[in-house]
Amino acid sequence: MFWDNHMHCNFSGDSEADPLDMINVAKAKGLRGITFTDHLDLGYPQEYGFFDLDIENYYPTHHKLALENSTDEFTILTGLEVGLQPWAKNENEEIVKAYPFDFIIGSTHLIDRLDPYFDSSWENTTPEALLTRYYECILENINTFTDFDSLGHLDYAFRYVKDSSIKNNTYEPYKDIVDAILQIIVNKDKALEINSKALSKGMKYPNPHKDIVKRYHELGGKLITIGADAHSPDGIAADFDFLPDFLNECGFTEYAVYQKRNPVFYPLR
Description:
CATH architecture: Alpha-Beta Barrel
Number of strands: 9
CATH topology: TIM Barrel
Helix content: 25-40%
CATH superfamily: Metal-dependent hydrolases
């Protein structure tokens, strides 16, 4: 009985999902619980047109939903997916501390104000150069902002590469900088998110790649969180059946669910 600890509803600019629909589908799928992690991406480029978060109403609304819809068999938690950028450090910290969130995902969506989700980001450069810079941005971000629990979808940018030979080779060509990222989160006792959405984006593994997850374990990483990154009810817990064998092969037998910013552990089987 898994938890899905990464999902978005209509508080996120890129989702129209009613949170109650997300709750009901998660219950119907037999999940043990869910964590809402809507987007907080300060300074997201206006030309992309979304990611504003109604922060004043966000936590109170989800907390009310949790009180009304949680049961002994099903728990609803409230978190945030914080889009990391060095200049946003202070404001992100203020928002994270202003509410009693259960879980904070720290994610990098922008490469110097370019979101690799959009084809235009790949113009006038090479995939290798953009992807190297993506990892550099993650390293800069986690050296600046540390008030997160799990590092979100580490090789996110690779989802949107057209060439499958590049898309599915996210560790070896970049191993020095990826190792530096992993060593920081191990040293800071942060979790590594396993994000199953990559499997629907033409990738052979979740985000991050199997080689990265194995390396995290080799470096002493012990904390894993799991999420499907659903933006609609049908995406909840998508491809979770892939995860037990995958994570066992990487050296993990349990995953963490953060409640009141502290990890609670559950077996993968």
